[in-house]
Amino acid sequence: MRITVMKFGGTSVADPEKIQRAAERAVAERRKGRGVVVVVSAPGQMTDELLTLAERVAPRPDERELDQLLSTGEQVGISLFSMACLARGAAAVSMTGAQAGVEAQGPHTRAQIVRIRPANILRELHAGRIVTVAGFQGLNDAGAVATLGRGGSDLTAVALASALKTGSCEIFSDVKGVYTADPRIVFEARKLTRLGFEEMLELAGAGSQVMQARSLEVAASHGVSIHVRSAFHREPGTWIVPKENNTMLEKARVSALALDKNEVRLSIVDVPDRPGVAAEVLSVLAKRDIPVDMIIQSAPTHRGVNDISFMTPRAWASKAREALASAAKELNARVDLHEHVAKISAVGTGFRHHPWVAARMFETLAKNKINIHMIVASDLRISCVVDAKHGETALRALHRAYGLGKSR
Q1: Residues of each domain in the chain carrying CATH 3.30.2130.10
Q2: Which residues of the chain are modeled with pLDDT < 50?
């Protein structure tokens, strides 16, 4: 049996009409004679609503109990989706992550999938049923529900496609594909027809909200191609593939831009300039599993001290600041938190050997009187941190400067 794996995000199943429309796609695929596995997110803003409810009960909810609560959003989604399929005359059954054989490990709220045992799914597929699986969750060694972090339904879909050996999966959302920039901010943004895994992974890491970065890592390592497309239009979207052909391998190419407003900048200021200090600072964060990005250490001053700065997701700001406070006390340093910042990134290929890409970014920002706080560059990405109030201006200006518009 040939199997199709489809994933519908929260906006695609936000209300009864959208659930019915999504179910029609699954039923149509089943009527082609294919096995259909559908991964469903929590409808609409249900996850955020549950999180807000938890924080009203307890300012810092216990993470195990939080996983128990948040996982119910996806269970609402799969039940309603299966009901919609059944109402259209198609046999269907819903499964939680545990029932689908998704095994996870790691800390609650950010667990990782270790394996999928798809026997239950395969049995239902061979019985002719559409199998609707709750995304974002698995079962850990203690027999408890463990969620997979924001965007975890993407990870569930890719991992299922790998376990079922489908070779690809379809990711449905409220966007038509991957664009050269956020089309809600840049009107001239173009939809890309194909993109390589490496570039898409960089875009995700730079703050693009299209797909979870971890899901792309799994897709790349297991050779699962991904079709990102709209749940509300029939036109093709963007294929994310193992390797995108580029006939001009020696030529630098800017594929897309990303703007991330969901990170903060943290600095530990006036730390002693001696071996091991950076390790002390970062190990404090590592022990608490706090994610960091764009780590920069300044040159030492005449006083023999320097600063270490990095970016971290806004949701982790308080924990990161608390963790750094203890390290700062030991080092006789201080911690600064800068909340009103944005990260603007250009993603493509060949940047390392073609300095014009970076030069154009800096020149464009300078012409628009936008100051740069931090810079990080690699062969695939150049990222700058700027004041949050300039983020959208920077995105539009750079989109024009790199000639990424629709007329290209």
Answers
A1: 247-403
A2: 247-249
